[in-house]
Amino acid sequence: MKIVPDTSVVVDGRITQKIEEGDFKGAKVIVHESVVAELESQANKGRETGHNGIEELKHLSELAENGHIVLEYEGKRPTLEEVKMAKGGEIDAMIRALAVEHNATFVTSDGVQSEIAKAKGLEVIYLRPEEPEYGELEIEGYFDEKTMSVHLKEDVEPKAKRGDIGAMRFRKIRDRALEGYEVRRMAQEIIEVVNRSDEGFTEVEKDGMTIVQLRSMRIAIARPPFSNGHEITAVRPVAKVDMEDYRLSEDLKQRLIEDQRGMLIAGSPGAGKTTFAQAVAEFLNDHEYSVKTMESPRDLQVSGEVTQYSKLEGSMENTADVLLMVRPDYTVYDEVRKTDDFEVFADMRLAGVGMVGVVHATRAIDSVQRLIGRVELGMIPQVVDTVVNIADGAVERVYDLESVVKVPEGLVEEDLARPVIEVSNFETGDVEYEIYSYNRQVVVMPIGEEERGKTGGAWNLVKKEIQREIGEVARGYVDVELVGDDQAVIYVDEDDIPFVIGKNGATINEIENSLGIDIEVKSHEERPEEMVDESSGAGAGVETHGEPADVQVTSRHVIMELDGMEGETVEVYADGEYLFTATVGRQGDIKVSRGSDIAEALEDAVDANRRVTVEEV
């Protein structure tokens, strides 16, 4: 008997199994060189399938040496391009041709290849992939009921993140370090179960990294050269709860089921955001809404009625296109992090799909600020109307977003009326923040008794804007004193007064009209003594703010490097003097074109050796 196995049946070890069972005893096994090349390519990329296949070939050699079979390798070794085209069927075609040449039986565990070989007139043995039942995996022994994640690395003591929700601690769980063979053994067991059972699937497979979903665990397996050692990180939910466990008000539950909403679930890592998102998904499903999810990787623990989608061809935009055709009532998006995620979330919401997004944010208002610059300001309440903040596994606060036209809190001129997004406490109805555009910048203003006084948020904003506007025409530094809701006194150098007032008062009138406030111009010599005492001497009469920032001037741009603040809205100061407000880009920087007013202000600050700092809004 002559048999020609394909790659699939070599990888799963079925050929040697059949030989040892006596089915292929004495057979001539002809292995095409393309099988060896494909397995070698996979092994070089760190993939377990390649290593498993090579072990099977070694086992065949041992059986041949012991006289159980005759083993031959034939065929032309494929080119690198042909190996790359393996998924397109090039390698399988070569193997089938070898079977035809030798009038041999074609052996495969791939259903498609079996049918193609039969269509080509070959004698075929189809070995259906076995799906053995696996008991507890070795890695599962490191988990207990309060373990969220297990972290295993060769030559390092095993560690785990354990504890109650919101109080997880990263701790050592064994004194003895893991040997390399132990980590590789567990990795091989995980891959084998994923490939040979219906208990899991491979989410990502790249050189040196495999991510799988197995049972309730999401497992990342890293190998050199991608990592500096073999490592396994396994994460699983520590709790599955329903909406009743959160003791939410009936009004909030009714809010979700009375109409499709745009909701953000915010919280710090480990706070319980995903657990709450699962509860929301099940709650909506139980109330006869069609619910889908968008996840990468898929790790929400939801019932089978909720279909879970990942990236389609590597893109959530493609997934969104499919969902817009499927038209679910609600989609749970876990997690919304990058600009592309926010844009997809907004597009689906504006298309009428109810959206629930999970966002990493320490405060609930921070999650709303992530939308600024990514969604047109006036559209934000249409995209997100509800924000739920999760802390220590519980709902800490719920915000309602609504757009109104009004004069922002702390400003009184009717001319200053504009669209304002009110962020209200859902339970009490109290407005806690206002978001609006003021003189070319977006303002997120906290509202409260302490903010309404003359040293409060709105007054500080007006002072900064007056300083900025006057600073564009004055050459020296500017002090501002607010003497009423619509009145201010500014103090400038004596020589700057004519420039600030302008011909026939044209300059100061234009600034007054722009800001909606009456301004009296005086020299610094006329400042009250208490203002002189309070002045910092840094130029603008305000204290230094925030963290130091590195400013670089190139031929075309002025760049501020702000690593770790991607997407944050910040205020920029020079020696405590407010310069401007900006949103940090995706690359962790603020890039301003040279020649603009903002760039010139930064360049002047650098030239004068002034301390440039930033402060999160």
What's this model, at a glance?
Helices cover 31% and strands 29% of the residues.
Structure report:
The protein is 31% helix and 29% strand. It is of the alpha/beta class. The strands form 6 sheets. It has a 10-stranded mixed β-sheet with strand order 15-14-16-17-13-18-19-20-21-22, sandwiched between helices.
Keywords, please?
single chain; 617 residues; Beta-Lactamase; Rossmann fold; 5 domains; ten-stranded mixed β-sheet; seven-stranded antiparallel β-sheet; 32 strands; RNA-binding; KH_dom
Secondary structure layout plus pairing:
Blueprint lengths: L1 E4 L1 H5 L2 H8 L6 E5 H12 L3 H18 L4 E5 L5 H5 L5 H12 L3 E4 L2 H9 L4 E3 L20 E7 L5 E4 L6 E4 L7 H17 L3 E7 L2 E6 L2 E6 L8 E5 L14 H9 L3 E6 L5 H14 L4 E5 L11 E3 L6 H11 L3 E5 L4 H12 L3 E7 L3 H6 L10 H4 L2 E6 L2 E13 L11 E8 L5 E8 L2 E6 L10 H15 L7 E6 L2 E6 L4 H5 L4 H10 L2 E6 L5 H6 L12 E2 L1 E4 L3 E5 L7 E6 L2 E7 L5 E5 L3 H11 L4 E5 L1
Parallel strand pairs: 1-2, 1-4, 2-3, 4-5, 13-17, 13-18, 14-15, 14-16, 16-17, 24-25
Antiparallel strand pairs: 6-7, 6-12, 7-8, 9-10, 10-11, 11-12, 18-19, 19-20, 20-21, 21-22, 23-24, 26-32, 27-28, 28-31, 29-30, 29-32
Helix pairs in contact: 3-4, 11-12
Family: In the N-terminal section; belongs to the PINc/VapC protein family.
InterPro entries: KH_dom, KH_dom_type_1, KH_dom_type_1_sf, KH_sf_prok-type, Nucleic_acid_metab_PIN/TRAM, P-loop_NTPase, PIN-like_dom_sf, PIN_dom
Pfam family, one: KH_1
